[in-house]
Amino acid sequence: MEAVDRALGFLEKFVISVGLGAATLLLFANVVARYFFHTGFSWVLELVEYLFAWVVLIGAAHGFRSGTHLGIDILVERFSPANQRRIALLALGACLLFVGLVWWYSVQYTLRIHEWGDLTLDLQIPQWIPYLAIPVGLGLMFIHLLQVGWEIWRGKTLRIHTHEAGEALKSMEDI
Protein backbone atom coordinates (compact mmCIF):
# COMPACT_ATOMS: atom_id res chain seq x y z
CA MET A 1 0.00 0.00 0.00
CA GLU A 2 2.90 2.31 0.79
CA ALA A 3 4.35 1.76 -2.69
CA VAL A 4 1.02 2.64 -4.33
CA ASP A 5 0.79 5.82 -2.23
CA ARG A 6 4.33 6.83 -3.21
CA ALA A 7 3.59 6.09 -6.87
CA LEU A 8 0.41 8.20 -6.76
CA GLY A 9 2.31 11.04 -5.10
CA PHE A 10 5.03 10.87 -7.75
CA LEU A 11 2.47 10.75 -10.56
CA GLU A 12 0.59 13.75 -9.17
CA LYS A 13 3.75 15.81 -8.78
CA PHE A 14 4.89 14.78 -12.26
CA VAL A 15 1.61 15.82 -13.91
CA ILE A 16 1.56 19.11 -12.01
CA SER A 17 5.20 19.95 -12.78
CA VAL A 18 5.22 18.88 -16.41
CA GLY A 19 1.80 20.44 -17.05
CA LEU A 20 2.78 23.81 -15.62
CA GLY A 21 6.18 23.73 -17.29
CA ALA A 22 4.78 22.78 -20.67
CA ALA A 23 2.02 25.40 -20.46
CA THR A 24 4.55 28.09 -19.58
CA LEU A 25 6.91 27.13 -22.41
CA LEU A 26 4.10 26.87 -24.95
CA LEU A 27 2.68 30.27 -24.02
CA PHE A 28 6.14 31.83 -24.10
CA ALA A 29 6.89 30.31 -27.53
CA ASN A 30 3.54 31.52 -28.84
CA VAL A 31 4.17 35.07 -27.60
CA VAL A 32 7.66 35.09 -29.15
CA ALA A 33 6.27 33.75 -32.45
CA ARG A 34 3.52 36.35 -32.45
CA TYR A 35 5.59 39.43 -31.61
CA PHE A 36 8.86 38.65 -33.35
CA PHE A 37 7.78 36.55 -36.31
CA HIS A 38 4.18 37.80 -36.78
CA THR A 39 2.83 34.27 -36.65
CA GLY A 40 1.65 31.93 -33.95
CA PHE A 41 0.33 28.50 -33.17
CA SER A 42 -3.45 28.31 -33.26
CA TRP A 43 -3.55 25.17 -31.09
CA VAL A 44 -1.48 26.49 -28.17
CA LEU A 45 -4.29 28.19 -26.24
CA GLU A 46 -6.50 25.13 -26.45
CA LEU A 47 -3.70 22.82 -25.31
CA VAL A 48 -2.79 25.15 -22.44
CA GLU A 49 -6.45 25.24 -21.38
CA TYR A 50 -6.50 21.44 -21.23
CA LEU A 51 -3.14 21.27 -19.45
CA PHE A 52 -4.42 23.69 -16.81
CA ALA A 53 -7.55 21.59 -16.32
CA TRP A 54 -5.38 18.55 -15.59
CA VAL A 55 -3.01 20.56 -13.38
CA VAL A 56 -5.82 22.13 -11.35
CA LEU A 57 -7.73 18.91 -10.77
CA ILE A 58 -4.67 16.78 -10.01
CA GLY A 59 -3.32 19.66 -7.89
CA ALA A 60 -6.54 19.84 -5.89
CA ALA A 61 -6.29 16.10 -5.24
CA HIS A 62 -2.67 16.50 -4.20
CA GLY A 63 -3.79 19.29 -1.87
CA PHE A 64 -5.89 16.78 0.07
CA ARG A 65 -2.92 14.42 0.17
CA SER A 66 -0.56 17.04 1.54
CA GLY A 67 -3.13 18.86 3.69
CA THR A 68 -2.67 22.21 1.96
CA HIS A 69 -6.33 23.08 1.54
CA LEU A 70 -7.59 25.94 3.67
CA GLY A 71 -9.74 25.23 6.66
CA ILE A 72 -11.39 27.60 9.08
CA ASP A 73 -11.47 25.93 12.45
CA ILE A 74 -11.65 28.78 14.95
CA LEU A 75 -14.96 27.48 16.32
CA VAL A 76 -13.92 23.83 16.18
CA GLU A 77 -10.85 24.64 18.28
CA ARG A 78 -13.12 25.43 21.23
CA PHE A 79 -14.42 21.86 21.39
CA SER A 80 -12.80 18.91 23.12
CA PRO A 81 -10.52 16.68 21.01
CA ALA A 82 -13.21 13.99 20.92
CA ASN A 83 -15.76 16.45 19.52
CA GLN A 84 -13.17 17.89 17.14
CA ARG A 85 -12.69 14.37 15.81
CA ARG A 86 -16.44 13.92 15.36
CA ILE A 87 -16.73 17.25 13.53
CA ALA A 88 -13.75 16.33 11.31
CA LEU A 89 -15.38 13.00 10.44
CA LEU A 90 -18.67 14.77 9.68
CA ALA A 91 -16.86 17.29 7.43
CA LEU A 92 -14.98 14.45 5.81
CA GLY A 93 -18.25 12.61 5.15
CA ALA A 94 -19.67 15.71 3.48
CA CYS A 95 -16.54 16.03 1.33
CA LEU A 96 -16.66 12.36 0.36
CA LEU A 97 -20.34 12.62 -0.54
CA PHE A 98 -19.79 15.72 -2.69
CA VAL A 99 -16.65 14.45 -4.42
CA GLY A 100 -18.20 11.02 -4.93
CA LEU A 101 -21.35 12.42 -6.53
CA VAL A 102 -19.48 14.81 -8.80
CA TRP A 103 -17.08 11.98 -9.74
CA TRP A 104 -20.03 9.73 -10.67
CA TYR A 105 -21.63 12.39 -12.86
CA SER A 106 -18.27 13.29 -14.45
CA VAL A 107 -17.73 9.65 -15.40
CA GLN A 108 -21.19 9.53 -16.98
CA TYR A 109 -20.54 12.77 -18.85
CA THR A 110 -17.10 11.68 -20.07
CA LEU A 111 -18.55 8.38 -21.32
CA ARG A 112 -21.28 10.27 -23.16
CA ILE A 113 -18.71 12.52 -24.82
CA HIS A 114 -16.76 9.40 -25.80
CA GLU A 115 -19.90 7.96 -27.41
CA TRP A 116 -20.49 11.16 -29.39
CA GLY A 117 -16.99 10.93 -30.89
CA ASP A 118 -16.45 14.69 -31.02
CA LEU A 119 -12.99 16.11 -31.65
CA THR A 120 -11.47 19.20 -30.06
CA LEU A 121 -11.52 22.33 -32.20
CA ASP A 122 -7.83 23.00 -32.78
CA LEU A 123 -5.97 19.88 -31.67
CA GLN A 124 -8.41 17.48 -33.36
CA ILE A 125 -8.06 14.90 -30.58
CA PRO A 126 -11.03 13.06 -29.08
CA GLN A 127 -12.92 15.46 -26.79
CA TRP A 128 -13.17 12.88 -24.01
CA ILE A 129 -9.40 12.97 -23.40
CA PRO A 130 -9.34 16.50 -21.93
CA TYR A 131 -12.59 15.81 -20.07
CA LEU A 132 -11.02 12.73 -18.50
CA ALA A 133 -9.19 15.15 -16.18
CA ILE A 134 -12.40 15.59 -14.19
CA PRO A 135 -13.05 11.98 -13.15
CA VAL A 136 -9.33 11.28 -12.71
CA GLY A 137 -8.82 14.33 -10.48
CA LEU A 138 -11.96 13.65 -8.48
CA GLY A 139 -11.07 9.97 -8.14
CA LEU A 140 -7.69 10.94 -6.70
CA MET A 141 -9.42 13.41 -4.37
CA PHE A 142 -11.70 10.63 -3.14
CA ILE A 143 -8.75 8.32 -2.49
CA HIS A 144 -6.87 11.02 -0.57
CA LEU A 145 -9.96 11.93 1.44
CA LEU A 146 -10.27 8.27 2.43
CA GLN A 147 -6.61 8.33 3.52
CA VAL A 148 -7.19 11.46 5.61
CA GLY A 149 -10.33 9.89 7.04
CA TRP A 150 -8.34 6.84 8.10
CA GLU A 151 -5.85 9.11 9.88
CA ILE A 152 -8.70 10.94 11.66
CA TRP A 153 -10.39 7.64 12.55
CA ARG A 154 -7.12 6.31 14.04
CA GLY A 155 -6.70 9.53 16.02
CA LYS A 156 -3.49 10.58 14.25
CA THR A 157 -5.00 13.91 13.20
CA LEU A 158 -8.11 15.95 13.89
CA ARG A 159 -8.25 17.85 10.60
CA ILE A 160 -8.63 17.43 6.87
CA HIS A 161 -6.23 20.34 6.39
CA THR A 162 -2.97 21.45 7.98
CA HIS A 163 -3.16 23.55 11.09
CA GLU A 164 -0.71 26.38 10.41
CA ALA A 165 -1.79 28.56 13.32
CA GLY A 166 -1.41 25.71 15.77
CA GLU A 167 1.96 24.79 14.32
CA ALA A 168 3.11 28.43 14.54
CA LEU A 169 1.97 28.70 18.16
CA LYS A 170 3.69 25.45 19.01
CA SER A 171 6.94 26.60 17.40
CA MET A 172 6.75 29.88 19.35
CA GLU A 173 6.39 27.91 22.60
CA ASP A 174 9.60 26.06 21.77
CA ILE A 175 11.56 29.31 21.61
From TrEMBL:
<dbReference type="InterPro" id="IPR007387">
    <property type="entry name" value="TRAP_DctQ"/>
</dbReference>
<keyword id="KW-0813">Transport</keyword>
<keyword id="KW-0472">Membrane</keyword>
<feature type="domain" description="Tripartite ATP-independent periplasmic transporters DctQ component">
    <location>
        <begin position="24"/>
        <end position="154"/>
    </location>
</feature>
<keyword id="KW-0812">Transmembrane</keyword>
<keyword id="KW-1133">Transmembrane helix</keyword>
<keyword id="KW-1003">Cell membrane</keyword>
<comment type="subunit">
    <text>The complex comprises the extracytoplasmic solute receptor protein and the two transmembrane proteins.</text>
</comment>
<dbReference type="Pfam" id="PF04290">
    <property type="entry name" value="DctQ"/>
</dbReference>
<feature type="transmembrane region" description="Helical">
    <location>
        <begin position="125"/>
        <end position="146"/>
    </location>
</feature>
<dbReference type="GO" id="GO:0005886">
    <property type="term" value="C:plasma membrane"/>
</dbReference>
<feature type="transmembrane region" description="Helical">
    <location>
        <begin position="87"/>
        <end position="105"/>
    </location>
</feature>
<comment type="similarity">
    <text>Belongs to the TRAP transporter small permease family.</text>
</comment>
<dbReference type="GO" id="GO:0022857">
    <property type="term" value="F:transmembrane transporter activity"/>
</dbReference>
<comment type="function">
    <text>Part of the tripartite ATP-independent periplasmic (TRAP) transport system.</text>
</comment>
<feature type="transmembrane region" description="Helical">
    <location>
        <begin position="43"/>
        <end position="64"/>
    </location>
</feature>
<dbReference type="GO" id="GO:0015740">
    <property type="term" value="P:C4-dicarboxylate transport"/>
</dbReference>
<keyword id="KW-0997">Cell inner membrane</keyword>
<protein>
    <recommendedName>
        <fullName>TRAP transporter small permease protein</fullName>
    </recommendedName>
</protein>
<dbReference type="InterPro" id="IPR055348">
    <property type="entry name" value="DctQ"/>
</dbReference>
<feature type="transmembrane region" description="Helical">
    <location>
        <begin position="14"/>
        <end position="37"/>
    </location>
</feature>
